Amino acid sequence: MLHLTLVHCESNGDLSKLFYKRVHNDFLVWMVSCIQIASKQSAHYKIVTLSDAEKFLKKAGHPRNQKQLLESELKVLKMVDFKIGVNNPLVYLEVLLEVLGNNDGKIPVEKLHASSVKVLDFIYLLRETKCKATSTITGEGTTDKRHFLTIRKQFMLLATAAISAAAYLAHPEEFSNVLHNLCLITCIEEEVILNFTKIITKQVFSPGDSASFQS
After folding, report:
1. 212 pLDDT exceeds 50?
2. How large is the average pLDDT for residues 50-67?
3. What's the number of CA atoms in the CB half-sphere (13 Å) around residue 13?
4. Domain segments of the chain: what residues?
5. Closest by alpha carbon to 200, among 214, 190, 208, 210?
């Protein structure tokens, strides 16, 4: 039956239209399923429930019941081979910001989040330069890429340094407070955080313009 349908569609030039219609009808549902899965993995946002998804799709003109939504969510998970929630610095960064906000309501967490994510992106864009600078600060002469890969695996340290640098660059009035809280939360020594923060800021500014740090 499917073969006959495809032959009929091809003969009428409607195969692409049929495919487009199918994708068009399911695309929004898949997207909502992705958002549902992502919301369950994030510490920063409210989980999108089946009821929320059902109401949204109904308003959008693509009504689905909760059973269909569960099936869609399972389909998405199968597409990615159930490989979700992989640890990365962004996860640590968002958790740290969540704790920062809970510990001190004066810290502008929302603004700091936006700045910190940009700094984290910057770190990865300049990973080669950062590798060499890290070798100097840690006292190791090697500039082997493997050394940076080892440092990069220390996601907590990277996330902490990104937040610290973001506070220094974009929210200097909050820098000391953020640094103090990060030390308490992560148990990473202040000197270590400052050293990595210096590495990042020296890549943003020219070496001659880099300001000295004071905790």
Report:
1. no
2. 93
3. 0
4. 2-79, 89-207
5. 210
- Asked if the model's pLDDT at residue 155 lies above 90, the reply is no
Cα–Cα distances (Å) from 100 to 61, 164, 179, in that order, read 40, 12, 10
Q: Quote the CA–CA distance of 24 and 29 in Å, as a whole number.
A: 10
Residue 91 near residue 161, CB atoms below 8 Å: no
Task: Name which of 193, 185, 180 is nearest 97 in CA terms.
Answer: 185
Give the Cα separation of 199 and 52 in Å (integer).
44
Give the number of other CB atoms < 10 A from CB of residue 70. Answer: 15
Upper half-sphere CA count for residue 116 (Cβ side, 13 Å): 27
CA 67 to chain centre: 30
- In terms of pLDDT, which residue wins out, 13 or 53? 53
CA atoms within 13 A on the CB side of 104: 17
Among candidate residues 40, 101, 50, the one with its CA nearest the CA of residue 71: 50
pLDDT at 40: 80
Tell me which DSSP letter residue 148 carries. H
> What confidence tens digit (pLDDT) does each residue in 86-140 have?
677 888 898 899 899 999 888 999 999 999 999 998 887 776 555 555 555 544 4
Cα–Cα distances in angstroms (integers) from residue 14 to residues 1, 24, 26, 115, in the given order: 17, 15, 19, 48
The answer to whether 164 touches 180, Cβ cutoff 8 Å, is: no
